[in-house]
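Collaborator request, handled under Task 6.
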Amino acid sequence: MSLFEDEPQTDPRWRHDPSVGRRSLRERIGWSAIGVALVIGVVFALLPSPYVIEQPGPVYNTLGSQEHDGEERPLIAVPGEETYPTDGELNLLTVSVVGKPGRTPNWLEVLGAWVDRTKSVLPVEAIFPPGISDSDRDAQNQAAMVDSQQDAIAAALVELGYDFPREVTVTGSAEGTPAAGVLEEGDVIESVDGTDVHSIGELRAAVQAHGTDSPASLLISRDGAEQTVELTPTDNGGTAILGIGVRMVYEFPFDVEIQLDDVGGPSAGMMFALGIVDTLTPGDLTGGESIAGTGTIDSAGTVGPIGGIRQKMWGALDAGSTWFLAPASNCNEVVGNIPDGLTVFSVETLDEARTIVEDVADGEVDGTYASCSAG
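Structure tokens returned to the collaborator:
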């Protein structure tokens, strides 16, 4: 006889409880489900997303230098003209893009960027439009940078009082538009309704002011001979247009060389113009301060909007700048996104930007300037 046959089996180690097995099975199934979910989550997080990430890029001091072909060269040089040593920084900002078609960030990286104030998440098509190759896109950005540098030189020289030819030149016209068959490639538009135009911005403003109800009178120069033509602008989404492409042609009184590698786009225009002004005028425009900024510019000195303003503000702060010049047309993106420690001024013209820089240098910033932070 077994020792346990005559004894009550009160020890729980020897009792059989069916619910224990069921509970153990449920736990195993639950943990298995959690494990599968984690594996699926990890796999999903590592899958490529349909987005790219914008983040602060390199910062360049337009008063400084950059290595080129193994030697240091100033970003701005004016050979043959008297230039003046300067101090401080006039920093231009860039934006770096993480990802490209076929090689986009994974979802984990995107989630991290969404909660990072210094970064922005954009659909890949917003940066890389379909049908445009990488080489075409790079060529477009490089062309925009070259044009921007020429416009910056023109704006700076106009600001300094130099008089030189600035020609708004027709590059072509679209079929079915008012200019088709009237304006030709190479025509120089000198005025609209008697108002002289010396920049693309001034041409657009003059056409918009005229409207679409009657013919506008354009004084043009064709093959060196002046003539007057009449065109009735057409409406394009609320904007009066002539239907032409134009570019600026300048005859500068002397050479200004701008050296900046591997950066494309037009957004450095204003800071290049300020750097040229500082280089060609006695003293320190900045007073030794570190001032950053961004904005397109035309030969009339009008400052225009740019992309990536949030990332550029963070880039400025990381580079040690405490003052920032922003295009007035970007203020809606600036308000609520200014990093602590950065003062942002709203500017519309090169002359206004120059005045702010000079007052920062003199310690005379008194709050009378337009500020993006004021809304």
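The cover message to the collaborator said: "The radius of gyration is 31 Å. The first strand starts at residue 51 and ends at 61. Please let us know whether this matches your experimental observations."
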